[in-house]
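so i finally got all the pieces together for this one. its four components total, 1044 residues if u count the protein bits. some of the lines might not be protein, just check the labels. i wanna see the whole assembly predicted at once instead of chain by chain like last time, that was a mess tbh
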Amino acid sequence: MWLRTRCELTFDFAVATPLILMLRPHGGAEQWVGREEYRLEPYVHACEFTDSYGNLCQRLTAPADDFTIVTSADVQVVERVDTAPGAPFVDIESLPDDVLIYLLPSRYCESDRFGQMAAEIAAGHTLGYDQVAAIAAWLRHRIRYVPGSSDVPISAVDVNLRQAGVCRDLSHLGIALCRGLSIPARLVVGYLHALAPMDMHAWFEAYVGGRWYTFDATQPGSAGGYVAIGYGRDAADVAIFNQFGPPANRTSQQVTVERLD
Amino acid sequence: MWLRTRCELTFDFAVATPLILMLRPHGGAEQWVGREEYRLEPYVHACEFTDSYGNLCQRLTAPADDFTIVTSADVQVVERVDTAPGAPFVDIESLPDDVLIYLLPSRYCESDRFGQMAAEIAAGHTLGYDQVAAIAAWLRHRIRYVPGSSDVPISAVDVNLRQAGVCRDLSHLGIALCRGLSIPARLVVGYLHALAPMDMHAWFEAYVGGRWYTFDATQPGSAGGYVAIGYGRDAADVAIFNQFGPPANRTSQQVTVERLD
Amino acid sequence: MWLRTRCELTFDFAVATPLILMLRPHGGAEQWVGREEYRLEPYVHACEFTDSYGNLCQRLTAPADDFTIVTSADVQVVERVDTAPGAPFVDIESLPDDVLIYLLPSRYCESDRFGQMAAEIAAGHTLGYDQVAAIAAWLRHRIRYVPGSSDVPISAVDVNLRQAGVCRDLSHLGIALCRGLSIPARLVVGYLHALAPMDMHAWFEAYVGGRWYTFDATQPGSAGGYVAIGYGRDAADVAIFNQFGPPANRTSQQVTVERLD
Amino acid sequence: MWLRTRCELTFDFAVATPLILMLRPHGGAEQWVGREEYRLEPYVHACEFTDSYGNLCQRLTAPADDFTIVTSADVQVVERVDTAPGAPFVDIESLPDDVLIYLLPSRYCESDRFGQMAAEIAAGHTLGYDQVAAIAAWLRHRIRYVPGSSDVPISAVDVNLRQAGVCRDLSHLGIALCRGLSIPARLVVGYLHALAPMDMHAWFEAYVGGRWYTFDATQPGSAGGYVAIGYGRDAADVAIFNQFGPPANRTSQQVTVERLD
């Protein structure tokens, strides 16, 4: 399906403020970008670079006072995400080199603390895909999904204590649990068609059966409509914006996702 | 200045044909992409990846019969390219690691054959930028620039024999001469505002004084208006398309570059 | 000076256990490896790869029962580490792309929590090197360095609470404080000549004045003798070994560093 | 089997001369480095870096007059290289991204000129491994292997004209022919046990059936004993040394490979 995404960010900074943004989707095996726009109002000089995860990042210094960023894209994505019940666990020694980094603990996914808990949640399931599916189901039933409930990322340990969180929080806990079973897992940030309430979204992927599969603890079923803008170990790697210096007086974020076909 | 580029490629393949394309400009220190479009008619599944030079590449299998690719972008670029008379030669031991590859000979730039000739052309000039400027001036005066004169790339040795060539050929000879002086040089492919006749364009960059500088042996002065889509050692690295299998019955390429502001 | 390092790790695993190791130093701007040895007893098939930070990593499956790894290297390193009082802070917009990752919070360096505290510690110092030097001095005076006091890494927040830690802990807090001032900082793991008691060591580097500088909150002065084996955002990236599966019955680690000239 | 390699290079330079060397083997799926040595006489400051192909490279400035480099390594390699008759051709659209670069023409492998000839040599063979085996057999029968016959690399077109060459030349022609069939192929430089006369060696690999396979047009059978030190598109990428400036008055190279077990 073709989706048209749009994100409008507005800031009111007291002083000129450096920003690093991750707002430009790029193509991959699962999505194709047919049209895309990135407006800066007022226009300031901006640089783009590719980070070590392959994400397109933009670097600029936002001027003081009002500053608006509008990005929009037409992206072709799959109707349903692939599922693969029974897909096997991949032995550490058989994992591709560049997947190994997703086994390690990271800022918001203290996987070194979740081995025992993960083993309990996944007990009785075939090693691999089915374990991850059990983790996602457990998250859906046990951790309350409360959109808008947190401003700044909290780590998997805290999510587990609060038993509630935003999409990013559930994903962080899911990732920590997967890694606790030696299953590589990573965070994806982007858009989801028909998300309610509409906003930027976060989900996770696990590496089983020789490839990455999509899991979303906030959504039932396996409907597609995901547009990725960034991949990383957790939200510390994939912030749609990082700002340096005093916080903005005001920030607003408006997101829409529309189906085109 | 803001430029709107457009490139329309049409093919008529006898059989389904794999293509690797390099048609999506991306941002860097010198250019910012504000809008961008990539249409496939008919639409086929396509994948995007980043090559080892950082270029965005698209991979797809074109269907038999008519196939059209239309790409378009609004890009902000500089009015004048930077020049730096006197900028010094950088010692081999001080070059950044990732620049070293641009010292070596490559498919169309047999720099190992041009040491003597480069030394003669650049004789009497300060080591560094001025040597490259002398090479570019020599190319302008001695190698006839004949747009449309060659279909397939020829190497620097052949360009030097023919004393004539397209923009890519002059660039290849320029690169081979720079490398012959141990100055890193690379090919850039993209668009140039007000190029006559309008077409895709190629120019080169040399690394002196601690950064890359733009040189164009086909143009006088230092007007800007360059939109880069790919960087590499020579045209073997930066083809706007590589096709695998029997050649197309027909290929056409229409390029426009329009100033927006 | 030439140093001879030696590290002997012995394990007693109940079952065959996958390991990812980081025990082979490699050359860089600051060190040259003249001789090097990596023995596996008993010998098992092992693979080597380079991670995204450029570290050499070794992957193997350790057999059940006794398994010993002996690594040794002769490395030429500097007598004194470079210092640069007054070296300026580098603006976010001027940092090299590959340095940006070291500005972000990571598993053991929750820099997003340390902005205020870092500003207080560094108050009154010139932006840049002097701020980092102030942080290192503060760590030396305020956080007790207790070799052998912790087994598993604790994060900067916890180090700050305990006011004590091993070399890795002090480094984590130093890194979190630097990043809190928008100064890129990274962890280095390796050997230090004349460290007492002798063991593997960890220190940190900060990026100011256009390059990385070494800081060590556990050592006075600026004596050299550092042999690096891994660089990363924190100890989650640079473990000398990661094991997957049940813990070893017994692990021992013997380290020596000897001066050769 | 365990092999001990040794290479001694001696130079007599008129002036201090920058060198980029590729003389340190590193581990991979097929080889493990158990001991290794790299001596510079006299000792000069040297830096090491990893190039875009993953090879370890050393950069230094050799002093005027006598300069000697001695490298030695103990490497565990396979007794026989893997063969896979019938392993299928991999469609362009299914090749891993990082393999695609090995489809393109390069300095010494003008594969764009060899499509027709490759098709004739491989006619009647199953697409994939068997085509490459046919090319290797053709090289063995038709191109005379004359160790020591050329000093500087010549390109595949010239090798084909001369019908004779050193190991590197036969490999270049083999690579050009493979790529002419849209089969990725790359050059490997290193050591071969029991090579006669003993010297550095070059062979090639082709990507079929989902992985790289070793081919050597200078050797019958599929005996192992290969120690790789560098991989690349051709000899322009993988020179054991590149020097910049006037040629040495004298260069000598002594190589030994000894079996340890």
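Chain A has two domains: 2-78+240-259, 92-236.
Chains A and D do not touch (no CB pair under 8 Å).
anyway lmk what u think
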